[in-house]
Amino acid sequence: MVINRETLAKKIAWISVISNVILTLGKIVIGRLGNSDAVFADGIHSAADVFASVIVLLVIKISNKPADKEHPYGHGKAEVIVSEIVGILLFLVAIYVAFEGISGFFHAVESPSLLAMWVALFSFAAKIILYRSSLKVANEHHSKAIEAIAFDHKADIVASIAAAIGVLLSVIGERFDIHFLLYGDKAASIFVAYLIFKIAKEMMTEAFDILLERNIDTDTLQEYIGVIESFPEVRRIDRVRAREHGHYVLVDVRIAIDHFKTIKEGHDLAKLIKQALMDQYDNIHEVLIHLNPYFPEDK
After folding, report:
1. Which of 4, 89, 199, 216 lies 20 to 30 angstroms, CA to CA, from 292?
2. SS3 string of 244-298?
């Protein structure tokens, strides 16, 4: 049975919501009761993941709507906007977590419960599974929304193992009376904040570039040019540009063909080039081709 893109995206989002709700409750409760700032911070991050997944669920249907009169290029950028919102949310979470961790260095500290470490390790294992499965689906279906969920899981992977190490260092510090190790949990929470900030920056930068319609990478453009050059009727390529529009790509091409070609011949050639590009790259949804006349003296 083939599952369509929207159904699959919703399935991934729901799995993320349910798993993150469970992990959020566990890490916040155990982190607070177990006196672990790092695990508590990791729980706050998971709470942000829940919010992000809910937003994705709300926008998936919009992004998969076909083009209409008001939106002739489709609704794919709805996913990009979601990615930007999630990035901003994670940025705010990073600031909060960093503030809590830094302020902890100015107060007396107590060793956290070892249970907090086991909760963090459980989260680490769960997030590896969720990240790999989400990223696979995001790549297969070119979904920025699912990719945003995957990046959330990625941030949690390292954050959870960092929290576990921080708790362990604090416990060791208390057991062996090594005072500076007692601050391992606080240091880990600051490191978690840095990881969250790094992921947030990547997400916001990519989404911002897409919203500003930045050209896609040079290597991919060269691949498109290679397909166009495979048609002997194309005498010159004047310009090729492409932009991401959420989970799909729009391509603009300007080529020159012999000036004596008829309108029908030019139309048929443009149609073949468009079909070749869309057949080879399933994320291309539209190819606009402009024809220029070519004269031998143009060489």
Report:
1. 216
2. ECCCCEEEEEEEEEECCCCHHHHHHHHHHHHHHHHHHCCCEEEEEEEEEEECHHH
Helix/strand/coil (H/E/C) assignment for every residue in 178-235: CHHHHHHHHHHHHHHHHHHHHHHHHHHHHHHHHHCCCECCHHHHHHHHHHHHCCCCCC
Question: Among the CATH numbers 1.10.155.10, 3.30.390.10, 1.20.1510.10, 3.30.450.20, which is that of 5-211?
Answer: 1.20.1510.10
What CA–CA distance (Å, rounded) separates 27 from 192? 14
Whole-angstrom Cα distance, residue 155 to residue 87? 12
Neighbour order of strands in the sheet with 236-244: 236-244, 249-258, 284-294
The closest of 181, 8, 21, 11 to 111, measured between CA atoms, is: 181
pLDDT along the chain (299 residues), means of 10: 61 82 91 86 79 70 66 62 79 86 79 87 90 85 74 80 89 85 87 83 77 75 93 93 78 92 93 93 88 81
Give the Cβ contact number of residue 1 at 10 Å.
2
Give the residue from 252, 249, 258 showing the smallest Cα distance to 239: 252
Does the pTM exceed 0.85? no
Give the CATH fold of the 218-298 domain: Alpha-Beta Plaits (3.30.70)
Q: Report the alpha-carbon distance of residue 255 to residue 241 in Å, rounded.
A: 12
